[in-house]
């Protein structure tokens, strides 16, 4: 017996109901795929942004250095950082290793001021590409620049500054004093992460060392790897007295925890949406059972067995699933691809430090997630159809024909 042919004919006799059921499946599948793509894009973006801007894949620090205090006292810093960075960069898994000096300071202009993090960098290092590529006005600082400073777009906008303007920068020095100097804004950058850009300014490393009196010291060696999964291996290969090597997982425990939590949260959302969709399918097939009581009675009277009635209803559910989930998968993929290019703008979410989020979140849908969602939606649709199918199979022919009259 060709169940699918009969199922197709039955669905065609009730086109409106079939279309609405298929539409519910399509909407549920598309919504699930977009939600999955959004969460994956958010966590992927947050992790990549935090690694490239804040922590890197590895950091080498003095064993007594506390990144929350931003002290530039010599006992908390690494001496001869250029030499140490060159040795680390010679390791094969390392893409780039560069010294950075971090201090706390205050930017002031006219009668306005803002607290900032002052970062001394080696301008030509590849690790600074996000800032170099993000210049929107002026130019990037150079290693021998002794008066230039680089500031973020949100800070420039809040203080009404532009490239070429003069600002006053105050810094806490290594000996506990406070020093203040005038700087010229060489360039204004944006990384698309307002929470980060508004709170940091950049100086050439040599100037930052001289300004803060840190001399030939740095707060850390910032390291990017060719493959971040080799962080533990590389960390084990870096040895030295009085230093510690922090991996990206150790420095981003909160972010890793949030990522794990988001997966659980996404699973709950999936179950809710699939539960609603399954309810629609059950309701549709139950209505079909009640409307086709006479037909079921006739089929049973002419010899159709209960398992064959179940197979007929499961065939209808399968056709609905193929159609609805197929259309929904295409719609979900199209939505994810579109917002993966243009993004969803949220603006400054005010999150910084341990977890950086770009102002615009780009959806990211993996093939594994899409396939898993499609298979799950299909299985739940089939399982949801079992109850009405079994109800139809248990109808007694005489009672079904009498009930239909």
Mind describing the biggest β-sheet? 6 strands, mixed, barrel
Mean residue pLDDT: 88
Distance between the termini: 28 Å
The stretches of 5 or more residues where confidence is low (pLDDT under 50) are: none
Strand content: 15-25%
Strand arrangement across the biggest beta sheet: 3-4-9-6-8-7
The multimeric state of the shown protein is single chain
Q: What class do helices, strands and sheet pairing give?
A: alpha+beta
Round the Cα radius of gyration to an integer and report it: 31 Å
- Could you give the order of the helices and strands? HHEEHEEHEEHEEHEHEEHEHHHHEEHHH
Shape: elongated
Can I get a quick summary?
The protein has 405 residues and is an alpha+beta fold.
Walk me through this protein's architecture.
The chain has 405 residues and is α+β, with helices and mostly antiparallel strands. 53% of the residues lie in helices and 20% in strands. It is built from 15 helices and 14 strands. The longest helix is centred in the first third of the chain and has 41 residues, at 15-55.
Features:
single chain; 405 residues; alpha+beta; 6-stranded mixed beta barrel; two-stranded antiparallel sheet; 15 helices; 20% strand
Question: Would you spell out the secondary-structure blueprint of this structure?
Answer:
Blueprint: H1 3-13, H2 15-55, E1 58-62, E2 78-79, H3 81-89, E3 94-109, E4 112-121, H4 129-132, E5 135-138, E6 148-152, H5 153-159, E7 166-172, E8 178-189, H6 194-197, E9 200-204, H7 205-212, E10 217-218, E11 220-225, H8 231-237, E12 243-247, H9 248-251, H10 253-291, H11 293-301, H12 306-342, E13 344-345, E14 360-361, H13 367-384, H14 386-393, H15 397-404
Parallel strand pairs: 4-9, 6-8
Antiparallel strand pairs: 1-11, 1-12, 2-10, 3-4, 3-7, 3-11, 5-8, 6-9, 7-8, 13-14
